[in-house]
Amino acid sequence: MNPLESRLAYPFGETLPPPGRKFEIAPGIYWIRKPLPFALNHINLWLLRDHFEGRQGWTVVDCGIASDETRALWDEVIDHELERLPIVRVLCTHTHPDHLGNAAWLTERFGAPLWMTLGEYAMGRVLQSGLLGTDGPSTLEHFMAHGLVDAAHAETLKLRTSYFARLVPAMPLSFHRIAAGDAIPIGDETWQVIPGFGHSPEHAALFAPGVEILISGDMLLPRISTNISVHAMEPEANPVQQFLDSIDRFAALPAQTLVLPSHGRPFRNLHERIAQLHQHHEERLAEVLELCARPTSAADVVPVMFKRELDTHQLFFAFGEALAHLHALWFKGRVVRTRGADRVYRFQVAPPA
Ligand SMILES: [Zn+2]
Predict the structure, then answer these.
(1) Is residue 147 part of a domain?
(2) In angstroms, what CA-CA distances link 125 with 171, 173, 175, 232?
(3) pLDDT higher than threshold 80 for residue 160
(4) Ligand 1 geometric centre to CA of 76 (Å)
(5) Do the domain assignments include residue 345?
(6) DSSP-based three-state secondary structure for 316
């Protein structure tokens, strides 16, 4: 949780949209919330009034996971909140299941296209098909190379197969590509695509200068820091640096910008939040660097960064995040990486040149 949350402003106070109902953020821009069966128990989705390809209707930004509960709430929204107009376009900020889960279900139902970046769409297709990726055995191997020895967690991780496909049972077979710098007319506003890296392959945030509103997706959240992980598919990634470089792009936006995040409540004071996130990761990097006075694996970092008991789902993210911070130091040349006779990677403060 963000200890400096009180420095942010929440213009709608504690108000949340009731289940299955929309809440007006600005004319033609609405907020809906869907439940998630995780510690992070909700996601925010956005409804934008649109006229697209000759049709009056709605562009939906993000979709919720493909659960019966989420779909029942979608039915409520469709029946009562869309002013009898269709969904004309589905836009997903990125490929994570809470954002993408119902994309095929919605696009098929309304004959609407999916708009997404190439990086997110392609990664979604790969994960959805189960060809590669985060499935059990490759994840287990990845974590073992970074010191995971706990047999119970190892067994659960190995069995963690089809995780993505369970939450995203289908994907649209074609998409419309959006990319950095695009200006997308939606209803009366034009939304600029701001790319983001480090959390997912090619995240798209959307900024409407006319109303000074940023749909930030998962790249700028008020209460929690965005998960930044090194995954099995790209084991030598440097996502912490990518993330920090990405949020700096939002620093160019006006100070009074209203941020619509995927988790938490709409907030103002984005420049403060950007500074807080830099500070947060700086502190974590300092903590990890201290551990690296002696040879340190990601498994050694996890209990220092995460001082509570973790279930396997949480361990998956904690491990990825611990390794991401080690990699940030490694890429900066602050630590060197070695692989011991036990085949485990360890990181240690670089000796003076
Ligand atoms: Zn995400």
Answers:
(1) yes
(2) 7, 9, 11, 17
(3) no
(4) 25
(5) no
(6) helix
The Å distance, Cα 199 to ligand 1 centre, comes to 6
Summarize pLDDT for 223-242 with one digit per residue, the tens. Answer: 999 999 999 989 999 999 99
- In the chain, the number of structural domains is 1
Q: What is the Å distance from ligand 1's center to 117 Cα?
A: 14
Within a domain: 80:
yes
Asked whether the whole model's pTM tops 0.90, one would answer yes
The pLDDT assigned to 220 comes to 98
Q: How far is the CA of 113 from the centre of ligand 1 (A)?
A: 21
Name the band, by pLDDT with cuts 50, 70 and 90, for residue 134.
low
pLDDT > 70: what percent of the chain? 98
* Cross-strand pairs, 258: 213
Q: What's the gap in Å between 219 CA and the centre of ligand 1?
A: 8
Task: Provide the residue count of the chain.
Answer: 353
- Distance in angstroms (rounded) separating the CA atoms of residues 281 and 198: 13
Residue 34 falls within a domain, yes or no?
A: yes
CATH number of 28's domain:
3.60.15.10
| 79-117 as b/e: b if 16+ CB within 10 A | eebbeeebbbbbbbbbbbbbbbbbbbbbbeebebbbbbb
